Amino acid sequence: MKPFVMICVPLLAASVLYGQAPAPAAPSAAPAPVAKVTGEWQPLFNGKDLSGWMNAAGGDSKWAVEEAALTGQRGTGDIWTKARFSNFVLYLEFKTTGNSGVFIRTDEPKNCVQTGIEIQVENPGGPDTHSVGAIYDLVAPSKNAAKAGEWNKYVITVQGSRITVELNGETVSSMDLDQWTQAGKNPDGSGNKFKRPLKDWKREGHIGLQDHGAKVFYRNLRIKPLP
User: Fold this and answer.
1) I want to staple 80 with a disulfide (CB 3.0 to 4.6 A). Which of 1, 51, 119, 208 is the partner?
2) Does residue 27 belong to any structural domain of this protein?
3) Which residue range forms the structural domain that includes residue 49?
């Protein structure tokens, strides 16, 4: 190698001396494009068993499958997706005998109240921040659009700071997390139970279904990831 270096150096110097720049290096290959979200619907529940679901501790859930529906009741505890999600459209159908809820972007299932946002599931009532269609303790639904004793449909869209809830085909509640700048307080001055400003919360996490003592059924759960 040494003789080669001794020859190349004078040649390089000569090219500079006579005003000829060395040949440019070949351009490096362009970086591979970042994969984009396809936007295709993905099932969260197969209608047969609890594959893809867990309890708050990461173990087996006590929920059951009845007539192709995820079924929870007093003592079963909450049930959580093993996967985490950021921006998405979530579709599901529910039928309930009382209080339950759908948690989204929950960072710590064992501390779901302070690390996740709940979309309220309940029999018709209200409307208020604790009634069906509410973003719990944060935004009251514009109307009571639920049907007692029947299957109801939720479409929950989460993208960036925006959350929108449709119940049985009607948009009933929405919020912009960036407007929740104070702990324990909503933008309108009313109080809430959250110990940190929601604008600072993680914007990805588990999806959960709540056991709040009432028997509740969920079916046809599917999710469409968004960019």
Assistant:
1) 208
2) no
3) 38-225
**Within a domain: residue 189?**
yes
**147 domain residue, yes or no:** yes
**What pLDDT, on the 0 to 100 scale, is given for residue 39?**
78
- Residue 45's CB: how many other CB atoms inside 10 A? 23
pTM value? 0.83
Task: Evaluate whether 87 touches 158 at the Cβ level (below 8 Å).
Answer: yes
CB-based contact 138:186 (threshold 8 Å): yes
Number of domains in the chain: 1
**CA 183 remoteness from chain centre:** 21
Q: Which residues pair with 208 in a beta bridge?
A: 80, 103
Contact partners, residue 195, CB within 8 Å, separation at least 6:
114, 183, 184
Nearest one of 178, 207, 192 to 92, comparing CA atoms: 207
Residue 163 belongs to a domain with what CATH number? Answer: 2.60.120.560
User: Quick one: which of 148, 139, 199 has its CA closest to 156?
Assistant: 139
Contact 110, 57 (CB under 8 A): yes
Buried b / exposed e across 140-164, counting CB within 10 Å, b at 16+? Answer: bbeebbbeeeeebebbbbbeeeebb
First-to-last alpha carbon distance for the chain, in angstroms, is 52
In this prediction, residue 38 carries a pLDDT of 61
